[in-house]
Amino acid sequence: MSNPVSDLILGFQGLVADVPDLVQPLILALAGAVPFIEGEGAAAIGIIGGIPPIVAAIAGAVGNIICVAVVVLATSRVRTAVTTRRGAIEKPPTARREKFEKAYHRYGTPGVSLLGPLLLPTQFTAAALTSTGVPPMRVLAWQAAAIVLWTTVITLIITGVVRAVA
């Protein structure tokens, strides 16, 4: 059986190889917007495909940040609409929400944002933070920092591996 994420990665690798050099960063930005691939995965796809590491990292991170910004803004609007309509009535929290809120109270927005990509795509973490009432600009700032950090780390690792193997 094929893995959907592996299929997506292979699809993006093939697409990057088949388009002109000027279009390749756009393909990586699209890959960066996909949950589970994200900025770091897009950078790895590009580097393995022969794109300069800095170009691959920037394209992947930008695509990931744009997608996260859309998710945060949409989640913020939904939260505002729901809380305005519901007023003061609160539903009991689900077990998943309680787990997230416990992590949030322990690590705060910076910790959840920076450590979140180890467990969940940034889009999911950003939506969860925004839905709990964290201000959207705070979520965006910390998610952007996390995306840049993780994309940089993976870019450095992949670049080192590619140079060692070549």
Task: Briefly summarize what is shown.
This protein has 166 residues and is mainly alpha-helical. The protein has helices at 4-18, 24-32, 38-48, 53-86, 95-115, 122-131, 136-165. The protein has one domain (4-165).
Describe this structure in words.
The protein has 166 residues and is mainly α. The chain has one domain (4-165). Helices cover 78% and strands 0% of the residues. The protein contains 7 helices and no strands. It has helices at 4-18, 24-32, 38-48, 53-86, 95-115, 122-131, 136-165. It is elongated and about 60 Å long. The mean pLDDT is 89. It comes from Microbacterium testaceum (Aureobacterium testaceum). Keywords: Membrane, Transmembrane, Transmembrane helix. This is Small multidrug efflux protein. The chain crosses the membrane at residues 54-76, 107-129, 141-165.
What distinguishing features does this structure have?
single chain, 166 residues, mainly alpha, 7 helices
SSE inventory with pairings:
Blueprint lengths: L3 H15 L5 H9 L5 H11 L4 H34 L8 H21 L6 H10 L4 H30 L1
Helix pairs in contact: 1-2, 1-3, 2-3, 2-4, 3-4, 3-7, 4-6, 4-7, 5-6, 5-7, 6-7
**How does the major sheet shape up?**
none
Number of beta strands: 0
| Shape verdict | elongated
Radius of gyration: 18 Å
Regions with little confidence, pLDDT below 50 for 5+ residues: none
- Give the count of structural domains: 1
Oligomer status? single chain
The number of helical elements comes to 7
Strand fraction equals: under 5%
Determine the N-to-C terminus distance: 31 Å
Q: Pairing-aware structural class of the strands and helices?
A: mainly alpha
